[in-house]
Amino acid sequence: MIYPRRLSVIRLLLTLCAFTGALRGLPCQAVPLTVLHTFGPGGPIRSKRGDRPALDGARPFSALLQGRDGALYGTTANGGAHGSGTVFRVSPDGTGFTVLHSFDTLQFGLFAGLTNSGGAQPVGTLVQASDGTLYGAAEIGGSAGSGLIFRLQPDGAGFQVIHSFGRVSEWVTGRNGGGAAPEALTLAADGLLYGVAFDEGPDEGGVIFKLNQDGKGFQVLHAFRGVVRGKNTNEGGAQPEAAPVFGSNGALYGTTISGGKGGCGVIYRMTAAGGQFTVLHHFQQTAPGFEAGESFLKAP
Q1: pTM
Q2: I need a surface site. Which of 24, 207, 245, 300 has the fewest CB within 10 A?
Q3: Where are the domains of the chain?
């Protein structure tokens, strides 16, 4: 789904309450917020509506990655030269903003939906390998319209699709065993890429997958079941959206935004090999914080 373009802002420093002061009952002290870059319309190209597209990108959904070179790397879901999203780089002081890659224009396919050669609408945080290569996921587009995994160099060179989700024939039958709409990746200590796809899979509730950095060895580790219509419930959760993380015990932890006994998502744990899958918590509509849509942060 393509969302309407909105102006968005990267905020590096959030306004925070001083933690120790809050505990002691002292007045909170605000940390100054600095705007590093504002995304907005620009450039000579006008759309059919008469407005100018945000050539530097629009709607940055995900967190930033600080690369090995100290620069900040991120993605926007929309905007760019073709309106399909961007990968960008900016210095921590806000200087040197550069669009590294603009995703291709989408075309409507009869059976595959919105397709192109290089994907569109990246919404997850990038990851960086030891050799400096950046990896990410595009939620839609690709040859089958169901998203893909890509990589590129920190200077924007060498953009390459390493895995495309789905095939046209699978969409015709109404089921895509490998998943669709990849959301986010995690780079494991063993060098493999682990990630989640929001939709489809053998049981139509999304999947957890892994693959090599060259795109080979793609494997579905766990398939989430679709939810009961009208109730949005199931036993194991559905529609994973946030990147899973590895615990110190080697297990993979993550969340889904729907399914579970309460219909509002779950927290899960799974062995890295795709063996035992355990639901640790079912979110309920009556409980605060239902619908889990963000990644965990592993404590040091």
Answers
A1: 0.82
A2: 300
A3: 40-225, 230-300
